[in-house]
Specification:
234 residues; alpha/beta; Spore Coat Polysaccharide Biosynthesis Protein SpsA, Chain A; 7-stranded mixed β-sheet; 11 strands; 33% helix
Length: 234
């Protein structure tokens, strides 16, 4: 596979895991004897498309992650382990600032361990063509939009509604410009990286298909589903 552009991954794993209800942060919970974060990093380590990984964790976990995950599991592509900020967008910005030599950047949740190299490759093709591409799947459910009082005000066509996942992939210059602008902008309601670019209103963001298995593990129920996925793979 020929490649000339440098592709970096910013893996965000600074969450505390309150919804999981455990003392251990969710990214360090084990699946088949290995931390969830290690499963995620393993995919990006093995992906030929990825040249460099910047890992974002909470400040009190930096040294632990370096020794117990990066060194122990041999993740040689992880060039930086840095502390995150107060909010996810703060953490992502720190990651972006740490990989300025990248042409394209993959921003991915540390607790999405079922991402695949096929998704990474499909994302590359999409971002190469469009400059901004995010992973997701068509919604299986009908979606209702409500007002503040819970009254239904709209039912968008299900064929146009997607459940958004990660990785979200961008030309580095585009997403860096958007995040630079965000530093002095309105951060209200920012829940994913595409929204930062969308707020600029200059470059469209395109969807590409991920997988219904590409779940984010945030609750005990998600952990049970993940364990079943791994059992099916054996």
């Amino acid at each position: 596979m020929g490649k000339s552009e440098k592709c970096a991954a910013v893996i965000v794993a600074a969450g505390s895991g309150k919804r999981m209800g455990t003392k251990i942060s969710k990214q360090f919970l084990e699946l088949k004897g290995k931390p969830i974060l290690a499963h995620t990093l393993d995919v990006f380590q093995k992906a030929e498309r990825i040249d460099d990984i910047c890992l974002i964790v909470s400040a009190d976990q930096v040294e632990y992650v370096r020794k117990e995950i990066v060194e122990q599991y041999g993740f040689t592509k992880v060039s930086k382990v840095i502390s995150g900020g107060a909010e996810r967008y703060d953490s992502v910005y720190r990651g972006l600032c740490a990989c300025e030599d990248a042409d394209f950047v993959y921003i991915h949740d540390g607790v999405r361990p079922f991402v695949t190299e096929e998704i990474i490759e499909e994302g590359y093709r999409a971002v190469r063509d469009h400059g901004a591409a995010i992973c997701g799947m068509p919604s299986k459910d009908t979606i209702k939009v409500t007002d503040d009082e819970g009254k239904v005000v709209d039912t968008p066509p299900r064929s146009r509604v997607w459940n958004v996942q990660t990785p979200q992939i961008f030309a580095y210059s585009l997403i860096r410009q958007a995040y630079d602008a965000l530093q002095n902008g309105d951060k209200t309601g920012i829940t994913d990286d595409a929204m930062v670019l969308e707020a600029m209103g200059t470059d469209p963001v395109y969807m590409f298909r991920g997988s219904y298995r590409n779940i984010k593990i945030t609750t005990p129920e998600d952990l049970q589903i993940a364990e079943k996925f791994l059992e099916e793979e054996d």
